[in-house]
């Protein structure tokens, strides 16, 4: 179900090169909500739509069938939310009969502001980060101003742009420099784009774009465009955040999700940080405040998670130790992998990635997908020590 576009929104869209025929797609896009947006056949491509239509199994049955698998394919955290955060979430469940039982939304914003040193006026919570990601494409791109990203990177922005008829320019990562995003090549590839999207750490490579490079891009980009920085995996790397650029009122939108290190993928909570005028532009296409439709359990759990400084560092250290042990095993097997600063990595099998994915699946190991630019490489999530031992054992069986 779509949202009702206002007269002002329609006039803005027409002025930026969209046609009236595209209003329906934009309305549907904004009405999907964050969780549905990521999975919708509208945005996930024809192949995904056919796959969903062909499967007679209900989602719960599919989840049950997966329960026997080692799940290291979706970049989920290997454990649940921090105990203190889970307790905070559980404590508000008895208040679930009320729409607004307390000021939980305001508490989250205040906590983010304190932790990230960003004004409260620059913070919007969302049910995940897919909605604001797609919404920025609608807002700042158009048929005359495209989207520029690294390749490979998280594909959601590609799908949204393609659905809307927006030009998508993909720039290969810098192979000679640890596969980081090449911001100078991005600007050169399309000097008049609407969005320059930087995922850091990058999904699927786990490589960090130096903050100095992001600053350079912000300083040299065209007027009227934004730099969209997706920091879904920032807590796994400990790298400096682009949030400081938001605090400086730059043309920057920073996205966060609680789905990764905070282990809240199923609770759906995310954030966007940007100047108020940029947020206002993102929200002008519908009369509904999608940012306000938040679970009180997610709000309470997320707020408590942000202040767990020692637990965040400990979880990061646990992941790094398991990741490095896995890298050592891959090296022993003579396999090439990309050094990562997140809870995932790319490994090169020197053969079709799908063949290896099928081989692992036959051994109850669910590894991640590949990207078209790298057909022989798979993304693997760093799971628990037990998960990664199972991965390494299965690898040894496959490579006999």
Overview of this structure, please?
The protein is an alpha/beta fold. It has 2 domains: 7-44 and 86-306, Aspartate Aminotransferase, domain 2 (3-Layer(aba) Sandwich); 309-398, Aspartate Aminotransferase, domain 1 (Alpha-Beta Complex). The protein is built from 19 helices and 12 strands. β9 (336-337) and β10 (344-348) form a beta hairpin. The chain starts with 6 loop residues before the first helix and ends with a helix. Residues 69-395 form the Aminotransferase class I/classII large domain. Keywords: Aminotransferase, Pyridoxal phosphate, Transferase. Pathway: Amino-acid biosynthesis. This is Pyridoxal phosphate-dependent aminotransferase.
C-alpha termini separation: 52 Å
* Rg, Å, rounded: 21 Å
**What is the SS-derived class?**
alpha/beta
The helix content is 40-55%
- Point out poorly predicted stretches: 34-39, 41-58
The dominant shape is: globular
Determine the CATH superfamily of the largest domain.
Type I PLP-dependent aspartate aminotransferase-like (Major domain)
Give the strand order of the largest sheet, numbering strands 1, 2, ... along the chain: 2-8-7-6-5-3-4
Q: Largest sheet, if any?
A: 7 strands, mixed
Please write the CATH class name of the largest domain. Answer: Alpha Beta
- The domain count comes to 2
Mean of all residue-level pLDDT scores: 90
Per the CATH scheme, the topology name of the largest domain is Aspartate Aminotransferase, domain 2
Number of helices: 19
Number of strands: 12
Strand content: 5-15%
């Amino acid at each position: 179900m779509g949202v009702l576009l206002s007269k002002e929104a329609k006039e803005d869209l027409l002025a930026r090169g969209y046609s009236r025929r595209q209003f329906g797609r934009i309305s549907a896009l904004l009405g999907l909500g964050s969780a549905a947006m990521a999975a919708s056949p509208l945005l996930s491509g024809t192949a995904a739509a056919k796959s969903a239509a062909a499967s007679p199994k209900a989602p719960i049955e599919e989840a049950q069938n997966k329960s026997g698998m080692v799940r290291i394919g979706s970049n989920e955290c290997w454990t649940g939310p921090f105990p203190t955060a889970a307790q905070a979430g559980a404590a508000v469940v008895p208040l679930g009969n009320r729409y607004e039982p307390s000021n939980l939304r305001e508490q989250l914003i205040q906590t983010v502001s304190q932790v990230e040193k960003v004004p409260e006026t620059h913070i919007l919570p969302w049910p995940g980060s897919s909605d604001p990601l797609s919404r920025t494409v609608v807002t700042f791109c158009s048929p005359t101003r495209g989207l520029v990203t690294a390749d490979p990177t998280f594909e959601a922005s590609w799908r949204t742009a393609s659905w809307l008829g927006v030009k998508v320019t993909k720039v290969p990562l810098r192979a000679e420099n640890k596969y980081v995003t090449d911001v100078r090549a991005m600007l050169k590839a399309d000097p008049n784009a609407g969005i320059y999207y930087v995922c850091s750490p990058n999904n699927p490579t786990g490589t960090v774009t130096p903050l100095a490079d992001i600053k350079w891009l912000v300083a040299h980009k065209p007027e009227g465009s934004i730099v969209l920085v997706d920091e879904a995996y920032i807590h796994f790397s400990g790298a400096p955040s682009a949030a400081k650029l938001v605090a400086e009122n730059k043309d920057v939108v920073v996205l966060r999700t609680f789905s990764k290190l905070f282990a809240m993928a199923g609770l759906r909570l995310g954030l966007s940080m940007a100047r108020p005028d940029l947020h206002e532009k993102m929200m002008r296409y519908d009369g509904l405040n999608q940012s306000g439709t938040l679970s009180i359990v997610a709000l309470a759990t997320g707020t408590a998670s942000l202040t767990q400084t020692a637990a965040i560092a400990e979880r990061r250290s646990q992941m790094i130790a398991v990741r490095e042990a896995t890298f050592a095993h891959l090296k022993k097997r003579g396999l090439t992998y990309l050094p990562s600063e997140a809870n995932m990595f790319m490994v090169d099998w020197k053969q079709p990635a799908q063949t290896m994915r099928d081989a692992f699946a036959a051994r109850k190991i669910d590894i991640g997908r590949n990207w078209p630019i790298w057909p022989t490489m798979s993304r693997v999530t760093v799971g628990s020590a037990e998960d990664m031992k199972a991965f390494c054992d299965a690898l040894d069986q496959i490579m006999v």
